[in-house]
Amino acid sequence: AQVCSGVPLEQLYEAQLAPPSGEQPARLGFAAVARLVWAGGRTRDPVRSRARIGAMAVAARTPSEASRRAVIEARLPRREWPARRLLVTAVDAASGEFVVFDSDSDVSLVDAVGASCAVPGVWPPVTIGARRYVDGGMRSTVNADLAAGAGRVLVVAPTAAAFGPMPRLSAQVAGLRAGGARVAVVTPDAAARTAIGRNVLDPARRAGAARAGRAQAAAVADEVAALWA
Prior knowledge:
The chain is α+β, with helices and mostly antiparallel strands. The chain has a domain at 3-138. The chain is 40% helix and 12% strand. It has helices at residues 9-17, 30-40, 46-59, 65-75, 109-116, 169-178, 190-196, 206-226, and strands at residues 88-92, 98-101, 126-128, 131-135, 152-156, 182-186. The strands form two sheets. The chain has a four-stranded antiparallel beta sheet with strand order 2-1-4-3, with helices on both faces. α6 links the parallel β5 (152-156) and β6. The radius of gyration is 17 Å and the shape is globular.
């Protein structure tokens, strides 16, 4: 949503270097990940897996929806859906249904992004209408298959982890290529992983992670540019 906002990338990068303000500290450590795997990894049915994760998320003790929404709203340079196509993923916490929000969904951008960032067990599910939603990463941490039909696909994946019946990034990329797409994939290198740290939700690591990402960008620039050659 930030990248599609129309704000120059350089300005977005500079904002990542500023000290975190108004962010809610959180931890996605081993115990939290283990709870996700335990909740979702006990079935081969992806919809049932996501529904179990959703039930865990609804029962978890988390900050309030209102406080979390304020953080999401503050992060967005624009609160309106952009003119360019933007797909925001979420999962219905009750049914396990995978949902894709866009500008035609009659859902505010703030709520759509909030739902897509609602890590189960850490942040509260987001209420939209009569339903509650959690992070679309519970279906896939990448959801690269949504780019099916495109001729060129650049996948930037801060994490490509998968568990239980989640589709793997390699399978999604293979599907895109089988459909005729040229695909480049960028995931954190060793330096970036070190900068991010084990707790990917720690706002104190943001500036270091941004610098490491920019350094890696220089290393992969030619590969990415070749996608459009």
